[in-house]
Amino acid sequence: MDRGNQSVVSEFVLLGLDNSQNTQILLFIIFLVLYLVIGSGNTAIMILIITDPHLHSPMYFLLANLSFVDLWLSSVSTPKMITDFLRVNKTISFGGCMSQIFFAHFIAASEMVLLVVMAYDRYVAICRPLHYSTIMSLQKCVELVLTSWAIGFVHAMSHLVVVIQLPFCGPRDIDSFFCDIPLVIKLACIDSYNLDLLMNADCGVVGVTCFVLLLISYTYILLTVRRSSASGASKALSTCSAHITVVVLLFGPCIFIYVWPLSITWLDKFLAVFYSVITPLLNPTIYTLRNKEIKSAMKRLTRYSIGSKGSIDAQKACLKHFRPATQRPAR
Asked: Less Cβ crowding at N or C end of the chain, within 10 Å?
C-alpha cells in the first residue's frame, strides 16, 4: 500500500486500564513495585547463574536466557503503562506503536520456542541421561537459543510488514494500555475481519505448535519417570512441574487473546497484564522457590558476601592500628 494513505494518523491514544484518577495512582504504585521486583528478580537469577560455577550447566544456561527474555518482555509495555498513569494525554506515536507490536511478538514467540528448548533439555536429561553431555553441549545450547530468537524475529516481522502498511485515517483510540495487533487492525480504514483472522492464525501456528511440542516432550518425560526409581522420579517431577507451571502461565493468556479470542474488553486487558507483567514476575519466583540448586547457590553467594565484608572490615581494623615507622612522630 501507499505510505501516504496512513500518514493521516500520526499517533494513537491508549485508554489504559481505568479512568479514575485515584485508581490510576494506586495502579501506578502497584505496577511500579512489580516492575522493580521483576527487574531485580530476573537480574539476580542471571547474575547468580553466571557467577556460580555449580550452575554452569545447560539447564541453567537456558534458565538465564529465560530470565533475560522475561526482563525484556516486561519492558516492552510496562514502563509506558506506568508513566501513563500519571499523564492526562496517554498518546503513543505511530512508530512507537509499531515498535511495541514488533517487540511484543518478537519476545513472546522467542520465549515460547525457548520453553520448548528447555523441555527438550529435560527430555534428554531424563530419557537419555547417558548421552546428555554429548547432545546438550554448550555449542548446541547456543544454537538452540539463537534459533528461538530467529523464529521470534521472523514471526514479529511477518506481522509488522502487514500492519505497518494498513491505512489509518479515522479512530485512533486503543482500549488497552499498549498497542496490540487485534486492537490496531480494528482501527484500519478497511474491512479487517479476514486480516484479523489471518493474524490470529499466524499467532496460532507459533503458539499451538510450541504447545503441542511441549505436551509431547512432557508426555515422554512422565512415561519415563514412571519406570524410574522413586528418588529419581521425585526429582524429575519437581523440575518438570516448575517448567509446566511456567508454560501454563504464558500459553494460557496468549491462547485466549490470539488463538481463541473472547472479545471481552476487561478480560483481554487482564490477560494482557497477566502475560506481560505477572508471568515475568512469577517465573523467577517459581524457579527459585522450587529449585534446591538455585537456593543453595543463593546461600553460597550470601555467605561469600558476608565473608568478604568481614575480611574487608578486618583489614581496615588492622590498617587503622598499624603505623609505619616512617610515620611515627620524632622524639
From this structure: C
As a whole number of angstroms, the distance between CA 45 and CA 27 comes to 27
∠ CA 170-171-175, nearest 5°, is 160
pTM metric for this prediction = 0.82
**Residue appearing with cell numbers 547432545:** 135
Instruction: Identify whether the C-beta of residue 184 lies closer than 8 Å to the C-beta of residue 174.
Output: yes
For residue 311, what pLDDT band results from cuts at 50, 70 and 90? low
Q: How far apart are CA 186 and CA 168, in angstroms?
A: 10
Q: Pairing relation of β-strands 91-93 and 173-174? A: unpaired
Helix pair 193-226, 138-163: axis angle to 10 deg: 160
Q: Are 118 and 59 in contact (CB under 8 A)?
A: yes
pLDDT in tens, 126-175: 888 888 888 998 899 999 999 999 999 999 998 898 888 888 877 788 88
CA distance 60 to 46: 9
